[in-house]
């Protein structure tokens, strides 16, 4: 991506600061993407659907995002980046107002697809702009800040949405998300510098980067790792109830999950710059597998220890969101001249993994929470095995 030349001192002092504004936008996107987990059973009841069926709202959003991201990147290539980011957030706000007013599940699913359009247009471009605003040695930290908006959404947006849903109803929670999107759009319009669009690149050419063997090896790991993280997350209310956390107490566990996610994401940025992505990812998958396995065992044995669930939830969140800065760094290393393309493809793979994990969660929840936890464990171990077999040396 070409960015207008700025004075070196200004770029160095303002680059990371501007990524905070982009993180406000990813916070809005992340809150929208993950908030349904906090009140999925209530929403399902009001719309006359089972919890597993209502979970399709998460799957549909994720699948639409994964499929639309490269298409939208092609169609909007020449649009100035700031205008595109603002428009994407406005679309996302409109979609959330629509979801809040949905009379039935079909209408909700349609608005979730529209929300995916806004999210798919925003997130990859926010990451690519952030990467371009800083020096190469600070790239992982800039990416971590932008992804931090998503993780802070899990720490604050989702628990707050859960609380609003309990106090005022799930429709009010989605309307609140729409308002956050509008505030984020105003912030991006005011503070993100002008960045011109890119030369138009056809979809076939855009996907040709997959012929790069290094890129092709990295992307499946994103799907596996995010799938492992999200088998349980969308169904966290019944999953946590199986380990002794009542639906009215879910918010504090989700807050701890989100706190761990923020810490894991930020630590990943620094650790990747210092020790390499492979070590960071190896640690993350081991922690994720252990946390999910222990929660599954607690569900199977009817063990009740709220403090331990809180600790495991924080570890699960940290392991889930330490992946993205490390994976993006690996991809940009593999294709430095196509950073925007590979970040967009990685975003598609993140949501493909979320969709696949949520789909597996909907299938396994009918067999009990223990099965769901252990399925996530198995996928985390599969991600670790894939990482080790496709990476000969730490990078």
Describe the overall structure.
The chain is mainly alpha-helical and 395 residues long. The protein has one domain (8-390): Growth Hormone, Chain: A (Up-down Bundle). The chain has helices spanning 8-34, 40-47, 51-54, 56-75, 81-100, 105-132, 139-168, 170-191, 203-207, 213-233, 236-241, 250-275, 277-301, 306-321, 323-334, 339-364, 369-390. The longest helix is centred in the middle third of the chain and has 30 residues, at 139-168. The chain is globular and about 55 Å long. The two termini are 24 Å apart. 58% of the residues are buried.
CATH architecture: Up-down Bundle
* Secondary structure tally: strands: 0
What's the gyration radius in Å?
20 Å
Query: Sheet with the most strands?
Result: none
SSE-based structural type:
mainly alpha
Number of helices, counting only DSSP H or I runs of 4 residues or more? 17
Task: Please report the distance between the alpha carbons of the first and last residues.
Answer: 24 Å
Indicate how many domains the architecture comprises: 1
Query: What is the residue-averaged pLDDT?
Result: 85
CATH class: Mainly Alpha
Order of helices and strands: HHHHHHHHHHHHHHHHH
Helix fraction, binned, reads over 70%
Low-confidence stretches: 1-13
Q: Output the CATH homologous superfamily.
A: MFS general substrate transporter like domains
CATH third-tier fold name: Growth Hormone, Chain: A
Secondary structure topology:
Elements: H1 8-34, H2 40-47, H3 51-54, H4 56-75, H5 81-100, H6 105-132, H7 139-168, H8 170-191, H9 203-207, H10 213-233, H11 236-241, H12 250-275, H13 277-301, H14 306-321, H15 323-334, H16 339-364, H17 369-390
């Amino acid at each position: 991506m070409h960015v207008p030349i700025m004075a070196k001192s200004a770029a160095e002092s303002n680059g990371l600061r501007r990524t905070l504004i982009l993180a406000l936008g990813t916070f809005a996107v992340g809150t929208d993407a993950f908030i349904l987990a906090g009140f999925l059973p209530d929403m399902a009841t009001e719309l006359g659907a089972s919890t597993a069926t209502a979970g399709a709202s998460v799957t549909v959003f994720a699948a639409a995002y994964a499929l639309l991201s490269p298409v939208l990147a092609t169609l909007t290539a020449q649009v100035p980046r700031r205008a595109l980011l603002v428009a994407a957030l406005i679309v996302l706000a409109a979609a959330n107002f629509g979801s809040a007013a949905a009379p039935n599940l079909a209408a909700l699913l349609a608005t979730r697809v529209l929300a995916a359009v806004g999210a798919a247009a925003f997130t990859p471009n926010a990451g690519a702009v952030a990467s371009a605003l800083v020096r190469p040695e600070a790239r992982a930290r800039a990416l971590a800040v932008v992804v931090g908006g998503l993780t802070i959404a899990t720490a604050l947006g989702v628990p707050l949405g859960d609380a609003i849903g309990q106090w005022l109803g799930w429709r009010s929670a989605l309307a609140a998300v729409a308002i956050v999107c509008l505030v984020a759009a105003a912030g991006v319009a005011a503070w993100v510098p002008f960045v011109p669009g890119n030369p138009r690149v056809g979809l076939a050419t855009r996907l040709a980067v997959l012929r790069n063997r290094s890129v092709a090896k990295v992307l499946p790991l994103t799907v596996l790792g995010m799938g492992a993280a999200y088998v349980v997350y969308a169904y966290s209310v019944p999953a946590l109830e199986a380990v002794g956390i009542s639906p009215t107490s879910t918010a504090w566990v989700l807050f701890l999950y989100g706190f761990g996610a923020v810490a894991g994401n930020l630590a990943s940025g620094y650790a990747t710059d210092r020790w390499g992505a492979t070590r960071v990812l190896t640690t993350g998958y081991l922690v994720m597998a252990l946390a999910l396995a222990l929660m599954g065992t607690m569900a199977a044995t009817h063990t009740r220890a709220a403090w331990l669930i809180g600790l495991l939830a924080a570890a699960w969140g940290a392991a889930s969101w330490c992946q993205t800065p490390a994976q993006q760094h690996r991809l940009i290393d593999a294709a430095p001249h196509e950073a925007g393309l590979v970040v967009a493809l990685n975003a598609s793979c993140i949501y493909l993994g979320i969709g696949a994990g949520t789909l597996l969660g909907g299938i396994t929840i009918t067999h009990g929470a223990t099965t769901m936890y252990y399925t996530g464990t198995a996928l985390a171990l599969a991600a670790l095995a894939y990482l080790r077999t496709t990476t000969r040396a730490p990078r």
